Amino acid sequence: MALLDISLDWPAKKKDTGEIYFIQIENIGAIKIGWAKNTTNRFYSLQSGCPYPLRILYIADGHSKQDEKSLHDYFRKYHMRGEWFHPDQSIFKYITRCKKHDEHLERKRMEKMESRSYAHIQTGDWIDNADETLGEHLERVYG
Question: Are 52 and 26 in contact (CB under 8 A)?
Fold first, then answer.
């Protein structure tokens, strides 16, 4: 997977997938790029050991530890220590790009679902007989 395409393809679920997250320390600004099976639990674990408030910037589901390593490598010039990175604009731009793409994919998914759900309405064909069941209607219309 290309480095900047990590959230751009909603990958097929695999056995060893989890969530890649970007969590920021509010007062200091440092950003943790990590991987977890459950980001919520990881967030609370990190928060309990941190004297400053944390906030989740972004979560991408369905990714591997290798994807996390790819992000660490990509942002290595901003590396501080461990999985913590300086809050550089390039990290924020990456997160923004991922969010916009995710929103686009979600919109397309919803449009596809809506077009399937209301296909019979859009063709102008509706249940003509009040006694006709939905199953009978679908059978009549779509044969």
Answer: yes
Joined tokens for residue 1: 């997977």
Any bridge partners for residue 56, and if so which? Answer: 23
Residue 8 has pLDDT above 50, yes or no: no
Is residue 90 situated within a structural domain?
yes
Per the structure, how many domains does the chain have? 1
Q: Which residue, 61, 58, 57, 94, is CA-closest to 75?
A: 94
Separation of alpha carbons 120 and 123, rounded Å: 5
The pLDDT tens digits of the residues spanning 101-125 come to 888 778 887 877 766 655 544 444 4
In the chain, the amino acid numbered 143 is: G
DSSP string over 8-57: TS-PPP-TT-EEEEEEEETTT--EEEEEES-HHHHHHHHHHT-SS-EEEE
pLDDT at 32: 97
Residue at 94 is within a domain? yes
Q: Is residue 65 a part of any domain in this protein? A: yes
Query: CB neighbours of 65 closer than 8 A, spacing ≥ 6?
Result: 16, 18, 35
Q: Is residue 101 part of a domain?
A: yes
